[in-house]
Design a protein that fits this description.
By secondary structure, the protein is an alpha+beta fold. It has helices at 17-26, 30-44, 78-82, 86-91, 94-98, 104-119, 128-133, 159-163, 168-179, 241-251, 257-260, 276-279, 320-323, 340-350, 360-363, 393-407, 478-488, 511-524, 532-547; strands at residues 68-72, 137-143, 149-157, 185-193, 196-205, 209-216, 219-223, 270-275, 290-298, 301-308, 330-337, 364-373, 382-387, 423-427, 430-438, 444-445, 459-468, 471-475, 507-509, 555-558, 570-578. It folds into 2 domains: 45-307, no CATH class; 315-511 and 554-563, no CATH class. It has a 21-stranded antiparallel β-sheet that branches. A hairpin with an 8-residue loop joins strand 12 and strand 13.
Length: 579
């Protein structure tokens, strides 16, 4: 998010990587995992696709490296099993379990299959889709240009269907016979594998959506968009070379997606793996030690894991000093080591030559902490960094002042000089810098500015940056930053009283304190004058679930105190510790 709506604005801060970390770590919360999975089954299995082969556009997907992977012994059980997590059980209802069964896309697909069977005098079980989703399956997902997980490949092992007297061979034979005459079901590309021809079929359903599927060697593969595998440039009737290689291995029983996540063969009932590159929206370069997250269910319940890359254990994970700066009423906090080289590159690109920050690695300890508060907004966390012990703090203020002035703010067409001035004042143990930045996402309406400001945008932030001793604080919310300064001055309790010293890369979660923020963000996305129906439904059904979070204790999500990563994708167990 840019702090200004003007195209001439500069990148507004080198610390914006921390905002991206907020999106990444917020996924760790159990309720977010549930909502994410809910949408995966209902939306991505029946994902958006092109209306017909003539309208296909080339997709640049690395088919061997999906952004997310769901593996399940019985995919249909996954929503129900998610409700065994206590936090989710009390905040979701039976609607969560049955949502995708009544989903319009699923019903539309089932209706299309029933029509095909009836019009062509074929026998297809009404329970075919449910039977297929009850088999062992892998669901791989890729993001589209907008960052959403839009494209999916579902591989189902159909061996158990034979025991239920449902032969996939006879089902595919019936579909093949109908494909030559039906308006929705048609033959698409084919491929040769070990001397056998494998036919892909295109099935149009509900509002012109299209699935591509094929069956071979006991495996059914379903693709949400034909353009994922068709050679669009050289004729949509052929598979692309990468698609031939990937589908050939999948039909042969190879679990090639496991390599993309550093996984061994699945032994748990369900396993959900998320790539950090997707969750970080392309900003993983700022924290490359993070590889991904994993959630899996075995006979003892659900477990969480974090994958780290080579060298992660060598990073500074001790952020004890930063917790002293964070007010204790936080809803959620995360702490991560930073990739200072990436920050250095941004400073060199956007800051003036005389910042004095020629070596960020020697200026910062490399650790960052972020916290979200119910009194603020999701896009305005409080960020804390720590200066290295060798830095002379007062002398560093000139460099920090120049960095703030260079990198904070955007072009203001109604203001002389193109920017509002930086305001600064001395603190008892440091310095505070602030600048007004116009933005439609601002915390304050433009007409509430005192003194009145000639803003082009409808709102504004009072972006704030401070040094208090060796601690650096930043936030788009000036009130939140002042709250942190009061905490450092010991006028308010700090989070350090809740977080044990020496915790390795902790995540702190307070569901009760986070719920006001979730409620505010939910209602803000549904303006009463634009979304009256959905807002009323949310007030009736969603808000009680969010408020139910207030009954839960605070948690720490911890890594083992000692771990070693001598290669990439080293999975480490995460401990959920109630406080």
């Amino acid at each position: 998010m840019n702090l200004t709506d003007n195209n001439d604005s500069k990148a507004w801060l080198s610390f914006r990587l921390a905002v991206v970390i907020s999106v990444l770590l917020f996924i760790v919360a159990g309720a977010t995992v549930a909502e994410w999975q809910w949408q995966l089954i209902s939306r991505h299995f029946f994902a958006k696709s092109q209306q017909d082969s003539d309208s296909l556009e080339k997709l640049s997907l690395n088919l061997e490296h999906p952004d997310a992977l769901i593996e399940s012994e019985t995919l249909a059980d996954l929503p129900k099993d998610l409700l065994t997590v206590p936090l989710l059980h009390d905040t979701l209802t039976e609607d969560f379990v049955f949502y995708y069964q009544a989903n319009a896309d699923r019903l539309g697909l089932a209706g299309s299959l029933r029509r095909i069977a009836y019009e062509h005098n074929k026998t297809l079980q009404d329970s075919l889709i449910a039977d297929l989703l009850s088999q062992p399956a892998q669901l791989a997902l890729w993001r589209s240009a907008d960052g959403k997980l839009t494209y999916s490949l579902l591989r189902i092992k159909t061996g158990m269907l034979a025991k239920a007297s449902l032969s996939m061979v006879s089902i595919m034979q019936s579909l093949a016979e109908a494909a030559g005459e039906d308006r929705q079901l048609t033959k698409s590309a084919d491929m040769m594998l070990n001397g056998e021809k494998i036919q892909f079929y295109s099935l149009r359903y509900l509002r012109g959506k299209t699935l591509l599927f094929a069956y071979h060697n006991g495996y059914l593969i379903v693709l949400s968009n034909p353009a994922m595998v068709l050679d669009v440039e050289n004729g949509a009737g052929k598979l692309s070379e990468p698609a031939l290689a990937v589908t050939g291995r999948l039909f042969g029983g190879d679990n090639l997606f496991l390599n993309a996540f550093g996984l061994a063969e699945r032994s748990a009932k369900h396993r959900i793996s998320l790539h950090a590159g997707h969750l970080a929206m392309g900003y993983q370069a700022f924290f490359p030690m993070l590889a991904g997250f994993r959630f899996e269910m075995d006979n003892t319940g659900w477990h969480s894991f974090l994958a780290v890359n080579n060298g992660a254990a060598d990073k500074n994970l001790n952020v004890d000093a930063l917790w002293h700066a964070m007010p204790a009423d936080a809803g959620m906090c995360v702490a991560l080591p930073l990739e200072t080289a990436a920050i250095q590159n941004i400073i060199r690109k956007f800051a003036s030559k005389n910042t004095g920050l020629d070596d960020v690695d020697s200026v910062l300890t490399g650790a960052a902490a972020l916290c979200w508060y119910g009194s603020s907004r999701m896009h305005t966390p409080l960020i804390a960094l720590e200066l290295a012990a060798t830095i002379q703090q007062p002398e560093a203020d000139n460099a920090l002042s120049g960095l703030f002035a260079d990198m904070i703010g955007g072009y203001e067409k109604k203001v002389e000089g193109g920017r509002f001035p930086v305001e600064s004042r001395d603190l008892a143990n440091g310095k505070l810098w602030q600048r007004v930045v116009g933005s439609r996402y601002g915390l304050y309406p433009a007409d509430q500015a005192e003194p009145p400001l000639n803003l082009a945008a409808t709102g504004f932030f009072r972006v704030s940056f401070a040094r208090h001793g060796s601690t650096l604080l930043f936030s788009l919310d000036d009130r939140l930053l002042q709250h942190a300064l009061d905490t450092l001055d010991k006028n308010y309790p700090a989070l350090s009283e809740r977080v044990p010293a020496g915790s390795a890369m902790p995540v702190y979660l307070s569901p009760g304190k986070l719920s006001p923020l979730l409620e505010l963000e939910s209602m803000d996305s549904l303006p009463a004058d634009q979304e009256a129906i959905f807002r009323n439904a949310a007030e009736k059904n969603l808000l009680p679930k969010i408020r139910a979070l207030q009954t839960y204790p605070d948690y720490l999500l911890l890594l083992p105190k000692e771990f070693h990563a001598d290669s990439d994708w080293q999975w480490q167990p995460l401990e959920w510790k109630p406080l």
